[in-house]
Specification:
Blueprint (H helix, E strand, L loop, with lengths): L2 H23 L8 E5 L5 H9 L4 E4 L2 H10 L6 E4 L8 H7 L2 E5 L2 H10 L7 E6 L13 H12 L4 E7 L8 H18 L8 E3 L6 H6 L4 E4 L1 H4 L3
Parallel strand pairs: 1-2, 1-8, 2-3, 3-4, 4-5, 5-6, 6-7
Helix pairs in contact: 1-2, 4-5
């Protein structure tokens, strides 16, 4: 095992320990929070080492970069998650090459993903990205429009609406982090009454995963604390 392999494996073990400790601290059932490795700007070899260390879910922000890595990793069975902004001209490739999309925030994109999902593949798992802080600079559907969008997306035959995702305003204060995640958790609980298959809360990154787990996160998206600073 080379130095890179050792470092990535050690980092993944540390992150898993943080997840387990947070699950225990916040009275979550053990092993209910999944770990996604976010590999934007990382090499296919680094992704391969993360998978060798037990990672089963890979998150990518940039389409062409992700497609290039997928070509180098065809021998590995892993779930690919698209978590970046989606342009209309990228939906076909996303629909064809990913298992999950976490960043759907408007009906136009959902319709294109639905129509372009190959018939031989299972429905595309989708999370709606929610702008919980009403920041103009942030992507995401507003809380006010969430229920309407969810109802429309939930009716599409080639998409499986699984949950919600957010990227809250950055803060180094745990109480502020948790308050931001609580907004999405509340919206999720409310939406579950009408969308029966919702089971995924995609929230929490390297700096705020504990706060996200406290508020019900089911998958944390970790890049820096696995691969190191970019």
């Amino acid at each position: 095992m080379n130095l890179m392999q050792q470092l990535i494996a050690l980092n993944i073990a540390k992150v898993r320990d943080r997840i387990r400790n947070a699950e225990e601290k916040y009275h979550r059932k053990p092993n209910t929070v999944a770990l996604m490795a976010v590999s934007k700007t990382r090499s296919a070899d680094e992704v391969r080492q993360a998978i060798a260390a037990g990672i089963t879910d890979i998150g990518e922000n940039y389409l062409q970069e992700a497609l290039d890595k997928q070509l180098h990793l065809t021998d590995i069975d892993v779930y690919w998650h698209f978590i970046g902004p989606i342009q209309s001209n990228k939906t076909r490739a996303i629909a064809e090459h990913f298992d999950w999309v976490h960043s759907v925030d408007r009906l136009k994109i959902a319709l294109r993903l639905n129509d372009q999902r190959p018939s031989g593949m299972p429905p595309l798992n989708v999370c709606l990205q929610v702008n919980t802080s009403d920041e103009n600079s942030k992507a995401g559907v507003s809380l006010e429009q969430l229920a309407s969008l969810a109802e429309q997306v939930d009716s599409l035959p080639h998409i499986q609406l699984r949950g919600l995702m957010s990227i809250p305003q950055a803060s180094d204060q745990a109480d502020e982090q948790q308050a931001a995640f609580a907004v999405l958790h509340h919206a999720f609980n409310k939406l579950q009454k009408t969308c029966n298959d919702l089971d995924t809360l995609s929230m929490g990154m390297s700096a705020d995963m504990e706060a996200a787990i406290a508020e019900g996160s089911t998958v944390v998206r970790i890049g820096t604390d696995i691969f190191g600073p970019r």
